[in-house]
What does this fold into?
Amino acid sequence: MSAADPRSRVPRTDRLLADPRIGSAGAGLGAAAVRAAITAAQGRARAGEIAPEDVASAVVAELSARGASSLTPVLNATGVVVHTNLGRAPLSDAARQALQDASGYVDVELDLTTGQRSGRGVAARQALLDACPAAEDALIVNNGAAALVLATTALAAGREVVISRGEFVEIGAGFRLSDLMESTGARLREVGTTNRTHPADYRDAMGPETGCLLKVHPSNFRVDGFTSSVPLAELRALADEHGVPLVVDVGSGLLTPDPALPHEPSLSEALEAGADAVIASGDKLLGGPQAGLLLGRTETIRRLARFPLARAVRADKLTLAALEATLRGGPTPVASALHADPQRVRERAEALAAAVGARVVEHDGRVGGGGAPGVPLPGWAVRLPEAAARPLRLGTPAVLPRVHDGACLVDPRCVPEERDADLLAAMRAALAEVG
Ligand SMILES: *Cc1c(COP(=O)(O)O)cnc(C)c1O
It folds into this structure.
């Protein structure tokens, strides 16, 4: 290598580490991340991709673009509101603020007036009870699956959980609710058939071995045609005949019925129909953080809270803070996307399409996340060439479109309106790349 070779002018690591611009861009990212960015930029200079004098600014640009974790924020342009692969519900501004506030030391289990220990998560529990007055008590755990395991274990370990065969749900990635419940020692007593279950089926199965009666909302599939299931009021009567609790897993976490989702059961309805404990997830239609919600009668909820497994599935302070803020704050992003005015979605799609010389097509959004299967949310999307999907995903910001029928569809439904300019910039960059 001659002295004139630009590669000899690549700045050394110690000089770059001492550069105050790199110091401030890398603050909070950790020494390993800063060194990795420096090594990468030096490598690019040695390969002739950038000039040696630009190495420092390349490191600054790389570090500034990076979040504190490797998770990349994504604009969800799929039209699927609760997108499991994108972390389900995006949090409200209030919930984001609450997460920030709760991330240091907080009085999650302390009464500041007395200086004594207090009940954990009292405020989040109260927010749930205020949002769902049909419940006498509530317990917040790690997720819906944990709530189900806790309920069936506490109420029926070593005994039977009576459940309709039509309610055997696989919740994704090969996880079956039935396996989950049996893994902790409750036995499942299946009754009825896939499409029809009658009161007599339950009655024949119930006896001294019955620990609880369970109804699960088959949230991610629907059986149409010759079907029948037993209404909750009748299950309540059967549970009373045998003196066992009735547990209902509604899944998606609607607090009250939503006219936009006519077949989606709500927590309130299930409680009013007599459930002793109702189970739902926090990060589906409720629009909050990952959590498992158990609401119901005081006696049943207390029994669950005192069961040793409850400690293993307890919610952390961040969950409690974000859940309370979600419940107390205004409409969640999930609610806004779910109830988006189709005309407004169309106007936004048309403005984006006009700016890139594309056209719009009708495009139904979906609830997603195992909620309201088959219920279309009428809307519109920008139709781009399929090849634009990859550069959109890899762009800044990352955009996830829907690839369908040989096209790349960009649906603005789940993109906050104030991000439309960013979405447009990403679309322009992606189209420039595919030519
Ligand atoms: C989603 C779902 C679960 C699992 O809840 P997680 O919060 O994902 O653990 C359990 N039951 C039903 C009916 C569901 O829809």
Observations:
- The chain has a mean pLDDT of 93.
- The pocket of pyridoxal-5'-phosphate is lined by residues 143-145, 148, 169, 171, 177, 216-217, 219, 249, 251-252, 281, 292, 370 (CB under 6 Å).
